[in-house]
Design a protein that fits this description.
Strand content: 5-15%
Shape: globular
Number of helices: 15
Radius of gyration: 23 Å
Length: 350
């Protein structure tokens, strides 16, 4: 599932290591995956031969003593947390390092526990959330949106502003524990270095027919299918005015970041870009660079769409979705009665 996949490729890696290069991202993703599998190694220490058979599907000969296999599992069980500790120590800014290096490396043990526990919560809650949405005839959309802790509140405010301008009436709500628990647990066990990469407060917005949960690497929309699709489009249009990134590949993100100063220039004086040759020249150069950019299609088409958005704005034209009211099938329907506090609570996985 997309949410589970992004656990180790998205917010878990971003929270632990901040911004990474493509090569670093692959290495750190492997470390996070190993940390998630760490509890399996603990079980393997208790039943070493059975664990080998379950993983390799090949029985070990009887003459191989249990203690040698157990020693191997114990070595891996120690290596993974130490690798996590070394990786986090290397990526932690010097100003945030507390205590000797050996203690920072040993801090990989509680971080590994946090990663495994957070993944377990997500692994259980996501299927429940999907099943609940199916019963309620709701749609769930998971949208990649990478942002730093400093940009998190700005992105949340912009999304809420744009959606409410369309009459959705989103209000701040307290997310369920299944939303905040994984990241809070990881933050608590990760210490100061980890807290510098995540927001202090997670945002969850709810209306009668739509709920939105914002994570450090994306957001989840749940609600009436037509309304979710409409809101998805509005979010895609709106976040170009923030520091949130809609691409995931570091090469695509580098090109996307070059668009952000152009958007800031537009927001300061919307009438000027149409007369500005500098914006046109830079946009043409970004377009040429996109032609030779080697990234996955999902990231490529996001950049293509953002370039078209900026070109439209530079010509003095409004964005396609935000300029018109939602179609009838996507318009939020007023409830006949106010929802009860229980109905207003988010469902698992929001």
């Amino acid at each position: 599932m997309a949410i589970l996949k992004r656990f180790w490729r998205g917010w878990a890696v971003s929270a632990l290591f901040g911004q990474t290069t493509r090569r670093e991202g692959l290495l750190f993703s492997l470390i996070v995956v190993a940390a998630v599998a760490w509890p399996i190694l603990l079980v393997a220490i208790v039943a070493p031969k059975i664990s080998v058979q379950m993983i390799a599907l090949v029985p070990l000969p009887d003459w191989v003593p249990d203690w040698t296999v157990r020693l191997g599992w114990m070595g891996l069980a120690l290596l993974i947390p130490l690798s996590v500790g070394v990786a986090v120590s290397v990526k932690t800014p010097p100003a945030l390092r507390r205590g000797p290096l050996v203690l920072l490396v040993l801090h990989g043990f509680p971080i590994t526990v946090g990663l495994a526990s957070a993944f377990a919560i997500i692994f259980v809650s996501v299927p429940i959330m999907r099943a609940a949405a199916l019963v309620r005839r709701q749609k769930i959309t998971d949208i990649p949106l990478i942002m730093s802790a400093s940009a998190y509140q700005e992105v949340a405010a912009k999304i809420r502003e744009v959606l409410n301008r369309q009459g959705l009436s989103l209000q701040s709500a307290e997310p369920g524990w299944w939303v905040s628990a994984p990241m809070r647990l990881l933050t608590w066990l990760g210490g100061e270095a980890l807290r510098s990469h995540v927001p202090e407060r997670f945002e969850h917005f709810a209306a009668y027919e739509l709920a939105l949960s914002l994570y450090p690497s994306g957001l989840v929309l749940r609600g009436k299918p037509a309304l979710v699709i409409w809101a998805h489009g509005l979010v895609a249009e709106a976040v170009v005015h923030t520091e949130g990134l809609q691409t995931t590949d570091p090469k695509a993100q580098a090109l996307e970041r070059r668009l952000r100063p152009l958007w800031r220039s537009y927001d300061l004086d919307p009438a000027r870009p149409a007369r500005s040759g500098d914006l046109g020249r830079e946009l043409d150069q970004i377009t040429r660079d996109l032609r030779t950019l080697q990234v996955d299609w999902d990231d490529w088409q996001v950049l293509y769409r953002q370039i078209l958005q900026l070109g439209r704005a530079a010509r003095g034209e409004r964005q396609l979705l935000d300029s018109e009211p939602p179609p009838p099938e996507a318009q939020p329907q007023a409830a006949e009665t106010e929802p009860s506090p229980a109905e207003a609570q988010p469902h698992p996985g929001e």
